[in-house]
Amino acid sequence: MRTTLWNLLTNNIPNHSIKFGVVIPMIQRDYAQGRSNPKSLEIRNQFVCDLKVAIENSQKAQEYPLELDFVYGYIQNDIFYPLDGQQRLTTLFLLHWYLSFKENNLKLTSSTLSKFTYQIRQTSTDFFRKLLELDFDEEKFDKPAFILSTYIKDQSWFLSKWIADNTIFSCLNVLDLIHEKFKNADIQLTTLIDNHKTPIVFNFLDIEKLGMSDDLYIKMNARGVSLTSFENLKAELSKLIKESTFNKKHIYNYEHSEGVSRFDMYKYFITKIDTVWSDYFWDKRNIITNVFDNKLLNLLSYIALTNKAAVDPEDFEQTRNRFESEEILPTFYQFIESKLLDEDSLVNYINILDFLIRSDSSYIEYFNHNNPYLNIEDLLDTRVYNGVYSLSATDRLKVYSIVHFLPLVKDRDNASIELLKMTRLISNLSTVSNFYNNYKDLNASLLGLSDIFNNYTGDIYSQFLHSEISGFYKDQVVEEKIKILLISKSDKWLQLIQNIELDPYLNGHILVMLKFSGIWDDYKSNTSLNWNMTQDLQFFESLKNYYSKYSMYFNENGSIDFGNQLFRTAMLSIDDYLIHATNFHFISDDNHRDTSWKRLFRESDNDKFSKSIGTLKALFDSSDQNISPKINLKNIIKTNKTTIQDWRKYFITNPDLIYYLSGYILFEHNYNMIYLLNASRYSVKAYELRTLLLQRKLEDLGISTTIEYKQEYGKSIIAQIGNRKSKVIFYFDKKDTFEIIERGKGSTIFNSEKKIINYIEENYKK
What we know:
Elements: E1 2-3, H1 5-9, E2 22-24, H2 38-59, E3 66-76, E4 79-84, H3 86-102, H4 106-113, E5 116-118, H5 122-131, H6 138-141, H7 148-153, H8 166-182, H9 189-193, E6 200-206, H10 207-210, H11 216-222, H12 229-243, E7 251-256, E8 259-264, H13 265-273, H14 276-282, H15 293-311, H16 313-324, H17 332-337, H18 343-356, H19 361-368, H20 376-382, H21 393-409, H22 415-430, H23 439-454, H24 460-465, H25 474-487, H26 491-501, H27 511-517, H28 519-525, H29 533-553, E9 554-555, E10 558-559, H30 566-574, E11 579-581, E12 583-585, H31 597-602, H32 610-621, H33 629-641, H34 648-653, E13 664-668, E14 673-676, E15 687-688, H35 689-700, E16 705-710, E17 715-721, E18 727-731, E19 737-742, E20 746-750, H36 753-764
Parallel strand pairs: 2-5, 3-6
Antiparallel strand pairs: 1-6, 3-4, 7-8, 9-10, 11-12, 12-13, 13-14, 14-15, 16-17, 18-19, 19-20
Helix pairs in contact: 2-8, 3-8, 12-13, 12-15, 15-16, 15-18, 15-21, 16-23, 18-21, 19-22, 21-22, 21-23, 27-29, 30-32, 30-33
């Protein structure tokens, strides 16, 4: 529970009675932050400065208070006895006292401040009581030479023997430092104790209600307090961990004001779950209900389920579906029934919670980098904490990689850098469009990650280069190896690769750029990419140039819309660039697994797409970066248009037909019969191209027609001209052959489009 010293002293702690305040028990040592040794001097200087900055930031409306970790102890006879936090509490008390003294308000605040005292020895107790009686002398206080400790020692009630009390000696030193830092600061006591905008907080912990006693939750229920799912889970988890065979196997360092303690998993879990971990999620609570523990519960569900996918993919699929359909709920009983709560999942859970609260300096450094490849907190906030069991394989792989990589790097000097490198690799590897079709694909990647992590020796890039990587799209694995070699060459390569990778449409997959620049093909025979300076510069400029050309025509949505299908028309004017998936397609801008630019980019080295990829490269090569992309495209069309005599000419002159229905087209009879499809397969809704073009030309002449599918012809034909049931059929077996069938006149054949248009105009136009 996050709170303040003032709340403790004013008995303002929900569900606790501390009417008689805070007493530092006899078992505690003396107050030490004011000692004269260099370490104590550094600690108190830093601490007091941090307090001052936190208060000033609060006055500037900055949102985040200074958090002083946790203070724990026990309550007895309405008195709180701290077992940890004595040093911080004492310094906070002295700051409260000083601000009250400086404002000459001790008479108003002494009743509250008197509820903080020491039981260590009588001299300390007397000193804290007498401080509250100190008279304020404004004239002396305002003098530059005023020394607060001297002023206190000069009081008639100050006994000379008190100076031998280490607690009193330390308090005087700290008060002098507080006076030095706060005398001229525009800071008042009201700022420090304002509950609506508290600048300094700590996590209050009553160990008797923490869970260190097994009857905690029994007591809560006995009082009629309804337990949430996670509160029940915490109680059961604590018991599970305590009674497990692996509890003593995992030892954690717990840092506190008195140093570092070594905790087993049980003690570490119960110490943190109601303090710093819960505080982190408190900021993510439902602002109406103040509920947040469901997020902790969902995070555990997510980790446990993903771990199951690595060892039993079929059971993972079944269990996930049951959770998703709410056939089963995320409760301790269901976790046990589903065999989700194993050692690995609990270790992973603790690791990621510590990671999120930035418990280690390397974690802080990692988050300070603002990783452009993976915003783990955003992923958790938007998906995991909300219990989205249908999370994509990509999302699961990203979090799986984090929780399993953390213990491998935590104690390394390069931990944050390795984390950044790892998340970059996993982000690129796991986001290949449509690579994950089922739980077996996810399982393969999870096993591939396990191989990487099991063989990790401290350099993820080096390991990736020299290992066989399984479970991921093979060309993406090769691409990552090439990029590792490139970014290790120099900072300019690093910057260029990152710029291209972070392109929102390429999204980390730059094979097409490596292919165009020649780097991909060079790697096939030169796997170390050993280049001389001239070659290095040539490849660098080539890659940079092709990415610049790409950026002229593509944005985060795919190919840029220049109006009237200008980009695809220019592509057609160069060559037949269509890709085949059931039928031919003009290539879409979405993430379609078979017909998108992403598919073409992903398989740029596939011979099946060599013509398509060659056409795109030719368009880039024909583009001049000194003029606008739109003018470039028009120039390309103008240059090539006159030489085109095949089916492409119909779309180049009628570009709106490129996506008239779906972008799919069907060719028959040596490209002489072309159908515009409304889906990937032919249906009665398809339009025969030449019939549609004829209709358009007749409409331009003011002659209305109706196109319908006719079973006897197996295709769409003109079934009506004006009000007359005349039929017009285009035939593929004779060049530009049209037949018109008219009631009372029979059938007439025309061997050119122009002739049938003239006939219809003469006989049907009013």
